[in-house]
Amino acid sequence: MSRLIQSALLGMVRAGAIAIAFWLASALSAHAACTWNVTFTAVGQTQTINTSTCETLWFGSFSSFYNVPTDITNIYGLGAVDDTGVPAPESATGSNGGVYEFTFNVNTAALQIKLLTAPSSETDVYSGYMFTGAADDQTPEANTPATLNFTYNAQPTVTAVAPASGPTGGGTLVVITGTNLLNATAVTFGATAASGFTINSDTQITATAPAGSAGTV
Asked: How far apart are CA 65 and CA 36, in angstroms?
């Protein structure tokens, strides 16, 4: 049975005492603005948050994010099908260009967020609204500001090292190729720090090999 039909049935049988009880429950469940912090380290990664700490059940179901304040009577928000509440992936874009896929479980308030496209900087924001309760004689409207603060900390990867060998005395200038190298804070050969290194770009570092024993590092 949809929330729309349930709402209509309740309106026909509601007594004064029931209306007062619902009003008190709604008043006690009101929230200030809601905020969650989510960190990604790679495109394609999925993180899960639970929004139940910031919202209110309405006829046994939770609701996801909404782009604008809206009547939630038969609408479940990002990541769930309207009318039925069945989880369904839906994408949205953050303030710095990151693209995220939302999938929402209306029964548990679990919101899965997958990073589809990296933002243009390390931080990104998606802002919307959530339902945190309404008096029984009012329209159930999602009107509480809600924010997802995203942090993108891409981990460095190494795809090539040239030359692949050198003298044990060290001093060889090595070109390291990879991705996400701009924020590198150290370069090591095995457990030994490089004698020095220079970050040339996000995909290349040159490092001076330290002295060491013969063998693979």
From this structure: 12
pLDDT digits (tens, 9 = 90+) for 101-144: 999 999 999 999 999 999 998 999 999 999 998 766 688 999 99
Q: In what order do the strands lie in the sheet with 196-201?
A: 157-162, 173-179, 204-208, 196-201
In angstroms, the Cα distances linking 36 to 45, 88, 147 are 17, 21, 6
CA angle 64, 118, 39 (to 5 degrees): 60
Q: What is the mean pLDDT of residues 87-95?
A: 97
Cβ pair 212, 189 in contact under 8 A: yes
Which whole number is the average pLDDT over 46-56?
94
Quick count: other Cβ atoms within 10 Å of Cβ 48? Answer: 12
Cα distances (Å, whole numbers) of residue 42 to 30, 115, 152: 36, 8, 8
Tell me the two tokens of residue 185: 């804070």
